[in-house]
Amino acid sequence: MLIAPAFESLDQQLHVIQKQCVLVCRRQSSRGEIIHELRVNCRKGLAALDFYGSLFPKIDFERLRSRLAKVLRKSSRGRDLDTMIDALKSTSPIVPPPLLLKLKKDRRKEFRSFRQWVRKLSLARERRKLKANNLESPFNLSQLDHQESLSRQAKQRIKAIVEELRGDSTVDEWTPKKLHRFRIRIKRLRYSLEIASTADQPFEISIVSTLLAQIQQALGEINDAVVRIRYLRKYLGKLNDQESQLYLNVQIAEDENLLADRLAKWGQFWTTDVQNKLYGDLMTRTF
User: Fold this and answer.
1) Are 151 and 133 in a shared domain?
2) If pLDDT is split at 50, 70 and 90, which confidence band does 142 have?
3) Structural domain count of the chain
4) Do 122 and 165 fall into the same domain?
5) Which of 45, 72, 128, 213 is deepest in the core (most CB within 10 A)?
6) pTM for the model
Protein backbone atom coordinates (compact mmCIF):
# COMPACT_ATOMS: atom_id res chain seq x y z
CA MET A 1 0.00 0.00 0.00
CA LEU A 2 1.38 3.38 -0.98
CA ILE A 3 1.05 5.33 2.26
CA ALA A 4 4.14 7.55 1.88
CA PRO A 5 2.97 9.32 -1.32
CA ALA A 6 -0.26 10.25 0.45
CA PHE A 7 1.57 12.04 3.24
CA GLU A 8 4.09 13.61 0.85
CA SER A 9 1.33 14.94 -1.41
CA LEU A 10 -0.56 16.57 1.45
CA ASP A 11 2.61 17.86 3.12
CA GLN A 12 3.69 19.48 -0.13
CA GLN A 13 0.32 21.19 -0.46
CA LEU A 14 0.54 22.52 3.11
CA HIS A 15 4.06 23.79 2.40
CA VAL A 16 2.79 25.76 -0.63
CA ILE A 17 -0.10 27.21 1.38
CA GLN A 18 2.17 28.31 4.24
CA LYS A 19 4.61 29.90 1.78
CA GLN A 20 1.80 31.85 0.13
CA CYS A 21 0.55 33.03 3.53
CA VAL A 22 4.00 34.52 4.13
CA LEU A 23 3.87 36.28 0.76
CA VAL A 24 0.45 37.74 1.59
CA CYS A 25 1.83 39.15 4.86
CA ARG A 26 4.73 40.81 3.03
CA ARG A 27 2.54 42.58 0.47
CA GLN A 28 1.53 46.17 1.05
CA SER A 29 -0.95 46.29 -1.84
CA SER A 30 -4.32 44.55 -1.71
CA ARG A 31 -4.08 43.80 -5.45
CA GLY A 32 -2.49 40.85 -7.19
CA GLU A 33 -3.09 37.16 -7.76
CA ILE A 34 -1.40 35.88 -4.62
CA ILE A 35 -4.64 35.67 -2.63
CA HIS A 36 -6.38 33.96 -5.54
CA GLU A 37 -3.52 31.42 -5.73
CA LEU A 38 -3.72 30.89 -1.98
CA ARG A 39 -7.44 30.18 -2.24
CA VAL A 40 -6.88 27.71 -5.09
CA ASN A 41 -4.24 25.83 -3.10
CA CYS A 42 -6.47 25.72 -0.03
CA ARG A 43 -9.14 24.07 -2.16
CA LYS A 44 -6.55 21.61 -3.42
CA GLY A 45 -5.53 20.95 0.17
CA LEU A 46 -9.15 20.23 1.08
CA ALA A 47 -9.40 17.86 -1.90
CA ALA A 48 -6.26 16.07 -0.70
CA LEU A 49 -7.81 15.70 2.75
CA ASP A 50 -10.87 14.12 1.17
CA PHE A 51 -8.57 11.52 -0.37
CA TYR A 52 -6.33 10.83 2.60
CA GLY A 53 -8.59 11.71 5.53
CA SER A 54 -8.93 8.09 6.60
CA LEU A 55 -5.20 8.06 7.41
CA PHE A 56 -5.64 10.61 10.20
CA PRO A 57 -7.35 10.69 13.58
CA LYS A 58 -10.69 12.45 13.31
CA ILE A 59 -9.64 15.34 15.56
CA ASP A 60 -6.55 16.12 13.43
CA PHE A 61 -8.51 15.75 10.20
CA GLU A 62 -11.23 18.15 11.37
CA ARG A 63 -8.72 20.66 12.75
CA LEU A 64 -6.79 20.88 9.49
CA ARG A 65 -9.93 20.95 7.37
CA SER A 66 -11.36 23.75 9.54
CA ARG A 67 -8.22 25.86 9.20
CA LEU A 68 -8.08 25.58 5.43
CA ALA A 69 -11.79 26.31 5.12
CA LYS A 70 -11.33 29.37 7.33
CA VAL A 71 -8.71 30.78 4.96
CA LEU A 72 -11.32 30.63 2.21
CA ARG A 73 -13.98 32.33 4.35
CA LYS A 74 -11.67 35.07 5.59
CA SER A 75 -10.41 35.95 2.11
CA SER A 76 -13.76 35.65 0.31
CA ARG A 77 -15.09 39.21 0.60
CA GLY A 78 -11.81 40.89 -0.33
CA ARG A 79 -11.49 38.65 -3.37
CA ASP A 80 -15.08 39.44 -4.39
CA LEU A 81 -14.41 43.16 -4.15
CA ASP A 82 -11.20 42.84 -6.15
CA THR A 83 -13.01 40.95 -8.91
CA MET A 84 -15.91 43.40 -8.93
CA ILE A 85 -13.68 46.46 -9.22
CA ASP A 86 -11.91 44.95 -12.21
CA ALA A 87 -15.23 44.00 -13.82
CA LEU A 88 -16.74 47.46 -13.38
CA LYS A 89 -13.64 49.13 -14.80
CA SER A 90 -13.65 46.87 -17.85
CA THR A 91 -17.37 47.10 -18.64
CA SER A 92 -17.98 50.67 -17.50
CA PRO A 93 -15.09 53.08 -18.18
CA ILE A 94 -16.51 55.81 -15.94
CA VAL A 95 -17.20 54.54 -12.44
CA PRO A 96 -18.42 57.38 -10.19
CA PRO A 97 -15.51 58.50 -7.96
CA PRO A 98 -17.48 58.15 -4.67
CA LEU A 99 -18.36 54.54 -5.53
CA LEU A 100 -14.85 53.65 -6.70
CA LEU A 101 -13.29 55.20 -3.60
CA LYS A 102 -15.69 53.30 -1.35
CA LEU A 103 -14.98 49.99 -3.12
CA LYS A 104 -11.22 50.47 -2.87
CA LYS A 105 -11.46 51.54 0.77
CA ASP A 106 -13.47 48.44 1.66
CA ARG A 107 -11.07 46.23 -0.31
CA ARG A 108 -8.07 47.64 1.57
CA LYS A 109 -9.89 47.11 4.87
CA GLU A 110 -10.63 43.47 4.02
CA PHE A 111 -7.04 42.89 2.92
CA ARG A 112 -5.58 44.37 6.12
CA SER A 113 -7.93 42.27 8.22
CA PHE A 114 -7.06 39.10 6.31
CA ARG A 115 -3.34 39.85 6.42
CA GLN A 116 -3.46 40.32 10.20
CA TRP A 117 -5.30 37.03 10.61
CA VAL A 118 -3.17 34.99 8.21
CA ARG A 119 0.01 36.27 9.89
CA LYS A 120 -0.96 34.15 12.91
CA LEU A 121 -1.74 31.08 10.82
CA SER A 122 0.83 28.30 11.09
CA LEU A 123 0.59 24.81 9.68
CA ALA A 124 3.90 23.72 11.19
CA ARG A 125 2.23 21.52 13.79
CA GLU A 126 0.18 19.69 11.18
CA ARG A 127 3.23 19.16 8.95
CA ARG A 128 5.30 17.82 11.87
CA LYS A 129 2.57 15.33 12.70
CA LEU A 130 2.35 14.28 9.07
CA LYS A 131 6.08 13.60 8.86
CA ALA A 132 6.23 11.84 12.22
CA ASN A 133 3.42 9.49 11.36
CA ASN A 134 4.75 8.89 7.88
CA LEU A 135 8.07 7.70 9.32
CA GLU A 136 6.53 5.69 12.14
CA SER A 137 3.12 4.27 11.29
CA PRO A 138 0.03 5.58 9.50
CA PHE A 139 -2.89 6.89 11.51
CA ASN A 140 -5.88 4.57 11.73
CA LEU A 141 -4.40 2.06 9.33
CA SER A 142 -6.97 -0.48 10.55
CA GLN A 143 -9.64 1.55 8.77
CA LEU A 144 -8.08 0.73 5.42
CA ASP A 145 -7.79 -2.50 3.50
CA HIS A 146 -4.06 -3.32 3.51
CA GLN A 147 -4.35 -4.63 -0.04
CA GLU A 148 -6.08 -1.55 -1.34
CA SER A 149 -3.90 0.81 -3.33
CA LEU A 150 -4.26 4.57 -3.35
CA SER A 151 -5.39 4.32 -6.94
CA ARG A 152 -8.42 2.31 -5.87
CA GLN A 153 -9.16 4.83 -3.13
CA ALA A 154 -8.87 7.59 -5.73
CA LYS A 155 -11.32 5.86 -8.05
CA GLN A 156 -13.82 5.42 -5.22
CA ARG A 157 -13.45 9.09 -4.29
CA ILE A 158 -14.00 10.24 -7.88
CA LYS A 159 -17.05 7.99 -8.14
CA ALA A 160 -18.52 9.49 -4.95
CA ILE A 161 -18.05 13.04 -6.24
CA VAL A 162 -19.60 12.14 -9.60
CA GLU A 163 -22.64 10.68 -7.83
CA GLU A 164 -22.99 13.93 -5.88
CA LEU A 165 -22.81 15.89 -9.12
CA ARG A 166 -25.43 13.71 -10.76
CA GLY A 167 -27.72 14.23 -7.79
CA ASP A 168 -27.26 18.00 -7.97
CA SER A 169 -27.86 18.14 -11.72
CA THR A 170 -31.28 16.46 -11.59
CA VAL A 171 -33.22 19.64 -10.88
CA ASP A 172 -36.37 21.04 -12.45
CA GLU A 173 -35.00 24.58 -12.46
CA TRP A 174 -31.49 25.91 -12.00
CA THR A 175 -31.26 28.71 -9.46
CA PRO A 176 -28.09 30.72 -8.68
CA LYS A 177 -27.86 28.96 -5.31
CA LYS A 178 -28.06 25.49 -6.88
CA LEU A 179 -25.56 26.47 -9.56
CA HIS A 180 -23.14 27.78 -6.92
CA ARG A 181 -23.24 24.45 -5.09
CA PHE A 182 -22.77 22.62 -8.39
CA ARG A 183 -19.81 24.89 -9.23
CA ILE A 184 -18.11 24.06 -5.91
CA ARG A 185 -18.50 20.35 -6.63
CA ILE A 186 -17.05 20.81 -10.13
CA LYS A 187 -14.02 22.53 -8.63
CA ARG A 188 -13.61 19.72 -6.13
CA LEU A 189 -13.80 17.17 -8.95
CA ARG A 190 -11.10 18.95 -10.96
CA TYR A 191 -8.72 19.13 -8.01
CA SER A 192 -9.48 15.54 -7.07
CA LEU A 193 -8.65 14.41 -10.60
CA GLU A 194 -5.30 16.20 -10.32
CA ILE A 195 -4.58 14.35 -7.08
CA ALA A 196 -5.73 11.05 -8.58
CA SER A 197 -3.28 11.47 -11.44
CA THR A 198 -0.39 11.33 -8.94
CA ALA A 199 -1.67 8.30 -7.03
CA ASP A 200 -0.15 4.89 -7.80
CA GLN A 201 -0.58 5.12 -11.58
CA PRO A 202 -0.89 8.05 -14.00
CA PHE A 203 -4.46 9.09 -14.72
CA GLU A 204 -5.20 10.57 -18.13
CA ILE A 205 -7.65 13.45 -17.62
CA SER A 206 -7.06 15.73 -20.62
CA ILE A 207 -10.45 15.07 -22.26
CA VAL A 208 -12.37 15.31 -19.00
CA SER A 209 -10.44 18.42 -17.93
CA THR A 210 -11.32 20.25 -21.13
CA LEU A 211 -15.04 19.70 -20.56
CA LEU A 212 -14.75 20.52 -16.86
CA ALA A 213 -12.96 23.77 -17.72
CA GLN A 214 -15.85 24.77 -20.00
CA ILE A 215 -18.38 23.94 -17.29
CA GLN A 216 -16.43 25.80 -14.62
CA GLN A 217 -16.06 28.88 -16.83
CA ALA A 218 -19.80 29.00 -17.55
CA LEU A 219 -20.68 28.56 -13.87
CA GLY A 220 -18.02 31.09 -12.85
CA GLU A 221 -19.51 33.74 -15.13
CA ILE A 222 -22.94 33.15 -13.60
CA ASN A 223 -21.53 33.36 -10.08
CA ASP A 224 -19.64 36.58 -10.88
CA ALA A 225 -22.90 38.21 -12.00
CA VAL A 226 -24.76 37.00 -8.90
CA VAL A 227 -22.05 38.29 -6.56
CA ARG A 228 -21.78 41.62 -8.36
CA ILE A 229 -25.54 42.22 -8.18
CA ARG A 230 -25.52 41.45 -4.46
CA TYR A 231 -22.71 43.90 -3.76
CA LEU A 232 -24.12 46.63 -6.01
CA ARG A 233 -27.44 46.49 -4.17
CA LYS A 234 -25.58 46.75 -0.89
CA TYR A 235 -23.70 49.87 -2.03
CA LEU A 236 -26.91 51.35 -3.39
CA GLY A 237 -28.03 51.66 0.21
CA LYS A 238 -24.71 53.13 1.36
CA LEU A 239 -24.07 55.90 -1.16
CA ASN A 240 -26.42 58.88 -1.38
CA ASP A 241 -24.89 60.98 -4.15
CA GLN A 242 -27.02 61.18 -7.27
CA GLU A 243 -24.26 60.07 -9.67
CA SER A 244 -23.57 56.86 -7.77
CA GLN A 245 -27.27 56.11 -7.31
CA LEU A 246 -27.93 56.45 -11.03
CA TYR A 247 -24.88 54.40 -11.97
CA LEU A 248 -25.74 51.59 -9.54
CA ASN A 249 -29.36 51.34 -10.68
CA VAL A 250 -28.27 51.14 -14.33
CA GLN A 251 -25.52 48.64 -13.57
CA ILE A 252 -27.81 46.41 -11.50
CA ALA A 253 -30.35 46.32 -14.34
CA GLU A 254 -27.62 45.45 -16.85
CA ASP A 255 -26.22 42.72 -14.64
CA GLU A 256 -29.66 41.25 -14.05
CA ASN A 257 -30.15 41.00 -17.82
CA LEU A 258 -26.65 39.53 -18.14
CA LEU A 259 -27.46 36.95 -15.45
CA ALA A 260 -30.69 35.95 -17.19
CA ASP A 261 -28.78 35.54 -20.46
CA ARG A 262 -26.06 33.41 -18.84
CA LEU A 263 -28.65 31.23 -17.09
CA ALA A 264 -30.37 30.67 -20.45
CA LYS A 265 -27.07 29.76 -22.11
CA TRP A 266 -26.29 27.34 -19.28
CA GLY A 267 -29.60 25.59 -19.89
CA GLN A 268 -28.72 25.27 -23.57
CA PHE A 269 -25.22 23.98 -22.81
CA TRP A 270 -25.98 21.50 -20.02
CA THR A 271 -27.79 18.99 -22.19
CA THR A 272 -28.29 15.28 -21.63
CA ASP A 273 -25.57 14.58 -24.20
CA VAL A 274 -23.04 16.72 -22.31
CA GLN A 275 -23.98 15.09 -19.02
CA ASN A 276 -23.66 11.60 -20.46
CA LYS A 277 -20.30 12.48 -21.99
CA LEU A 278 -18.95 13.75 -18.66
CA TYR A 279 -20.42 11.14 -16.32
CA GLY A 280 -19.94 8.23 -18.69
CA ASP A 281 -16.28 9.00 -19.26
CA LEU A 282 -15.58 9.42 -15.55
CA MET A 283 -17.46 6.34 -14.41
CA THR A 284 -15.74 4.03 -16.92
CA ARG A 285 -12.21 5.30 -16.28
CA THR A 286 -9.61 3.00 -14.77
CA PHE A 287 -6.48 4.11 -12.92
Assistant:
1) no
2) very low
3) 2
4) no
5) 45
6) 0.82
